[in-house]
């Protein structure tokens, strides 16, 4: 049942609605009176007045037993949702007021650990009055029941439309094949095909076949051996130990490539079809703190993307845009 504000203004029955909700939830007028710190007759009067205002019975009273009528059940369900929303909203506002300029950012785990954790300190130093709470989420787990100012998540743009969220693209990354030098010498040297190497797969992001097709790398056939993980960072950790060949994106893999811990055996990179997006609750107004954080984040990512292109160029790695035409008649590998 939808309770319009005009109804509340006309009948001034918010107190009666609260009394009825307590009686329906506790199934007792006495218990409701105790919870609301009023007398039992006061609760009975409020419920009776509400029934009169609405023109229908809400409770069936048989001795000491109270049951809800069909109208009572409908009203009770609506009131539960309304009071829960009010409680959540007041708690959120109160918590922010106590904390001052505080931001809560939800980030998919790979991005949080591989890039944001190493960058956010610069924002905090430049903005000493703002505190940031960063929560790393499981990759590909996009819950809608969380309270946050920003959420950084990856996927196809628009795939998670709705839910009261505004989505804007942050960036795309560059995928490269990586492994150790010793691994490449053993498994990717002359006489070996890429498909024969032990492969490390992120179950949430397996673009091996597409990567080969668009870059022109001939893998020599389907993968022969693979180990599957649920995070790209795990794939990269095993690759760095010499355990396999994997695809690493430029946000996660670049530091290891720059230090030589990982090499790019085939000097090609492919711009991703997916992207990192920034999500914000539509109903939440931008605060000065959130505006500063978003401006910093976009600037930091743009600067990093320039660094990525320069670092890959220095390594002789050609970046393939997805719109580039690939000459399939002259495959690499």
From TrEMBL:
<dbReference type="InterPro" id="IPR036388">
    <property type="entry name" value="WH-like_DNA-bd_sf"/>
</dbReference>
<dbReference type="InterPro" id="IPR000847">
    <property type="entry name" value="LysR_HTH_N"/>
</dbReference>
<dbReference type="Pfam" id="PF03466">
    <property type="entry name" value="LysR_substrate"/>
</dbReference>
<comment type="similarity">
    <text>Belongs to the LysR transcriptional regulatory family.</text>
</comment>
<keyword id="KW-0238">DNA-binding</keyword>
<dbReference type="Pfam" id="PF00126">
    <property type="entry name" value="HTH_1"/>
</dbReference>
<keyword id="KW-0804">Transcription</keyword>
<dbReference type="InterPro" id="IPR005119">
    <property type="entry name" value="LysR_subst-bd"/>
</dbReference>
<keyword id="KW-0805">Transcription regulation</keyword>
<feature type="domain" description="HTH lysR-type">
    <location>
        <begin position="12"/>
        <end position="69"/>
    </location>
</feature>
<dbReference type="InterPro" id="IPR058163">
    <property type="entry name" value="LysR-type_TF_proteobact-type"/>
</dbReference>
<protein>
    <submittedName>
        <fullName>LysR family transcriptional regulator</fullName>
    </submittedName>
</protein>
<dbReference type="InterPro" id="IPR036390">
    <property type="entry name" value="WH_DNA-bd_sf"/>
</dbReference>
